[in-house]
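Our platform keeps sequence and structure together, in a single record for each protein. This encoding replaces a full spatial description with a residue-level series of whole-number codes. We quote a single record here, exactly as it is kept in our systems:
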Amino acid sequence: MQQAGVASETEVTWEDQQNINKFGRLNNRLHDLDDEIKIAKETNENLEDAGNELILTDEEVVRFQIGEVFAHVPREEVENRIEEMKAATDKNLEKLEEEKESILAQMAALKRILYGKFKDSINLEED
């Protein structure tokens, strides 16, 4: 007989430990993805701002940063480069968002499994 208020000891199998480890790895990747998504959004905003500034300028040759140096590049070429960079950033952002959704789905499935077995004996929530 169990006494009230005493948590039951549930045996942790090898499979359970693998699920816990997988959840931990997914949680770490989720945090990394959040940081990457934030950076991608900031980059996208910066490119949008650069495109808007380019529209306002009346110069035909503008300075464009390539690596650590600025080069004088025709305005039309800079516009094309900015559009290509925005497209690449959008594509990357979409890929990151899809990966985040996949990870959240996997984590939800693992939570159901682990909470189903361990109930209140395990905490998988962020503090």
About this structure: The chain has a mean pLDDT of 90. The longest strand covers residues 61-66. The first helix runs from residue 14 to 56.
